[in-house]
Amino acid sequence: MNLKPYPEYKDSGVAWLGDVPRHWAVHPLKRYAKNIINNVISKNSEELYIALEHIEGWTGRFKKNREAKFTGQVKRFSETDVLLGKLRPYLAKVAFPKEKGVCVGEILSIRPNVNYLLGTFLEKSFLSFPFIGIVNGSTYGSKMPRTEWDFIGNLGFPIIPLPEQNQIARFLDYKTAQIARFIKAKKRMIELLKEQKQVIINDAVTGKIDVATGKPYPKYKDSGMEWLGQVPEGWEVLPLRWHILIGSGEFRSGNLIRTEKSSDYQYPVIGGNGVLGYTNSNNSEDNLIIIGRVGALCGNVHYVKESAWITDNALRIDDIRKFQPEFLALQLKAMNLNKLSNANAQPLITGGIIKSQKVVFPPLNEQLEILKYIEHKTAAIGKTISRTEREIALMQEYRTRLISDVVTGKIDVRGIEIPDIADIDDTLDEAMEETEGKDEWETEEAEECIRR
């Protein structure tokens, strides 16, 4: 598919558009679209309910939620309205549901005049990097930055022939569906590689294989633990409580945490789900094991090799005896500690629960050999995962650039023949299910990227 620029251009006079094709008109968006505010307190059973968390950033994909219960006021939208999140606009929460529903107040419901502006073209334009960049620059409020329709409605916007708008939207639907398939396949590949890596680790740290021979040990005994089963005859099985000290981390104020590491803020801040940022002080030394203690991800295990600040959402294990700390961390991961959490609305795991668990103790020299074996056997898998993650990132960058170039007229797609693919929407829906709860851009890194 040979992508070329338009034959002639002119200066649009609009920063986010730059030069546009000569035949394009540019007018304030409010001439051809309205911000709809139709406040209600209920919805019909068949209607959609859309909140910001239901929309995936930068893709236009959203979760179709009809069963949600809510209290308070919402806004009704129609099948022609395009939705744009006004809170933290750098997240690019944009959706075109093409059916009726209600949305939360932090979402703008923008209704185009379909005699001049198609919803599909409006949606794609809202997803473009330069549009999001200029809208993000209009926000007010440092902690909860918002934009408003007054700014967006006054932005210069391309008004072009309807057939050309339709062609642009169809072309981008086709290409983004291809990209979604590619990303889905690559993510599945990463999942399989991680499973393979975990099998290697689990087999080694639980004694299923002798790393010296690559075969099972000559003799086994019953461990007395259902999750572990048989263990090598020479390995000890003892309660953790006699061999570790465990305690909680400490609260760290958000104004003392930075997203980027620097000479002043060099210590990682680690919670139950890993690194949250960096701070200027530490409350722990190196070679710690960190376990998430609260929330859906409680039981997550991290081995920390450097000095860090451990937050109060995590437990920390130190003063580890009879173990190489990294070996114990791998064995705790193999135990799947999350299943030990209580069944309350807010899952919780305590230090007492951890200390009551039994683990297996190979001799220290054997622990070292096991760690060397794991490093050797998983190195190639790790490289493949990193390479695949980079391929996904590059494809996501390509998607963002392609949308921006097409909707601002840098690429002419008028003469391109687009296959009539009936399953485009199905592909996008599948991709949304695949990435649900894993918003690619929902981090402060996105804001930094926009600023640059």
UniProtKB/TrEMBL annotation:
| Gene3D superfamilies for this protein | Bipartite methylase S protein (1.10.287.1120), DNA methylase specificity domains (3.90.220.20)
Instruction: Spell out the molecular function terms from Gene Ontology.
Output: DNA binding; endonuclease activity
Q: Can the keyword Transferase be found in this entry's annotation?
A: no
- BP GO terms, sorted: DNA restriction-modification system
Tell whether DNA-binding is among the UniProt keywords. yes
Give the source's domain of life in one word: Bacteria
Q: The Type I restriction modification DNA specificity domain covers which part of the protein?
A: 250-379
Alphabetic keyword roster: DNA-binding, Endonuclease, Hydrolase, Nuclease, Restriction system
Q: Which family does it belong to?
A: Belongs to the type-I restriction system S methylase family.
This chain's protein is named: Restriction endonuclease
